[in-house]
Amino acid sequence: MIDVKQLKYFVTIAEEGQITKAAQKLHIAQPPLSQQLKQLEEELGVPLFDRKAKKMELTAPGKAFYEKAKRLLAQLDDAVAEVKEIEAGTAGTLSIGCVKSCFYYLAQAIRHFHEQAPNVTFHLREGDTFSVCRLLQERQIDIGIVRLPIDSADYDVIHLPSDRYIAVLPEHWALSKPYLSMRDFADWPLLLLHRVHGAGQYERVMEECRRHGFEPNVLCECPDATILLSLVAQGLGATIVPQSTVALFRLPGIKVLEIIDSSMTAEAAVILDPQRYLPKSARRFLDVLQTVSARTSGG
């Protein structure tokens, strides 16, 4: 009868592509691992790997079995986690992926949650919205915090308070007024946030510029807000970012101004995998995050 250990061995071999590498990852000797794979194939009555190639490649039956085995192991992990967390929620590790322009909400929530549950540790991952969505799909994080829009059909979405866009300019740029209009950006090089994949804040700002009758001069596109702010501080150009981004990453050499004729808002949200068990600690953290976010926004 096939057991969990054989499934784990098989999945590891499939992902590593070599018995040797799989054995190293599993911390076992190579011969017993090869024997376990042989027994599994005999049990199933089909070859799972093509051994002619330098790298062990899955056969057609092997590919089908890999997908099922990986799903079964994930479900088993969820079941074990759920049992352990039923009476807990105050310990363990909480994995969170966050877009850097949303760190303002996250940093405050972690501080408040740590006061309530000091034994919970955090594993934080940073990336643009596309990257955070992928981390959630690959089960590397429990919670994702992203900027909208996204394809919400794949996730449970909890909306966070919206965030106004503001202008950030080099401090030494001389201005005749303490605020800006969108048309002011027509004469300046722009540094804009841009996702690695998909549409987001970049497209929103571009559309707003065109709505005001000009095609912006985009000098730089980057998914990292802190890099953009650093470039602004060096005098390379201006940027338009969510207000909370500057609140957390306020660098020397920049100045922040309101854009009086733009109603652009940045929408943020928590995303969850609807097919995955959410640990009690994660559910408690979400309560704190929503409370802190509402308080910060004045809601």
From TrEMBL:
InterPro entries: LysR_HTH_N (IPR000847), LysR_subst-bd (IPR005119), WH-like_DNA-bd_sf (IPR036388), WH_DNA-bd_sf (IPR036390)
GO CC annotations on file: protein-DNA complex
Keywords: DNA-binding, Transcription, Transcription regulation
GO molecular function: DNA binding; DNA-binding transcription factor activity
UniProt-listed PROSITE patterns: HTH_LYSR
Segments passing through the bilayer: none
Entry's family note: Belongs to the LysR transcriptional regulatory family.
Protein name: LysR family transcriptional regulator
Source organism of the structure: Geobacillus thermocatenulatus
